[in-house]
Amino acid sequence: MWPRDSRSAAGMTPESGQKVMNGPLQIDVITIFPQMLAGFLGESMLKRAVRMGKADIRMVNLRDYTTDAHRTTDDRPYGGGPGMIMKPEPIFSAVEAVRGEKARVILMTPQGRRFDQAMARELSRESHLVFICGHYEGVDERVRAALVDDEISIGDYVLTNGALPAAVVIDAVVRLLPGVLGAEGAAEQDSFEGGLLEHEQYTRPAEFRGMRVPDVLVSGDHAEIARWREARAQERTLERRPDLKKNK
Predict the structure, then answer these.
(1) pLDDT tens-place string over residues 169-206
(2) Which tens digits make up the pLDDT trace of 220-247?
(3) Which of 110, 130, 210, 220 is the one with CA 20 to 30 A from 50?
(4) Is 76 a catalytic residue?
(5) Is there a catalytic annotation at residue 137?
(6) Is pTM, for the whole model, over 0.85?
(7) Considering 74, 116, 122, 137, which one is annotated as catalytic?
(8) Residues 129/27, Cβ–Cβ less than 8 Å
């Protein structure tokens, strides 16, 4: 086994396990397609989080860490087989260039832990995340063995590269940083918080094409509204995702 740097729980208080917000969450995304997420990162909540100083997101071009004239990042697999494998040298160089003492290095891979809301909260308490985005048939196993702290999958399907799954994880994590969503406690009302899907939502008009908003929501009785929402969240979860109740 190759040596792996130890990683402490960055920015955490031992008593509460909560992130100490003494600086932005640093996020580095190592990929051969650094422009793929440009529009995604420059819009909506992520753009606001960066402007607020809650997150600092950098796209790292893996080809900048190659040493040959062709900027090669892949090669044929030993033992034969289809496709190409991402070479270890540029990945090691890129990670070592951006990784700080408290960084958590994550490999996006279909073989990783299934990403969920609990993991998003876990990652939101870190101070530095480094995402390695694979491509082709995968990455050289020595990257996994010597550099990676965690491996994450967003589902049982295959995409062309790891930048898109990394974008999903980044969005889910950054929105949980204090103050990013604006309204205090907004993230706690989302689906999957507390092991439940969110109750249905309505806005004006009160009636549309014969479909009315439930009377309780326009009653002004906040205690009754809270009870209705809890009951609907329970019912919707049992109907659509009973596995969430079993896993709780």
Answers:
(1) 999 999 999 999 976 555 555 555 578 899 999 999 99
(2) 999 999 999 999 999 999 999 999 877 7
(3) 110
(4) no
(5) yes
(6) no
(7) 137
(8) yes
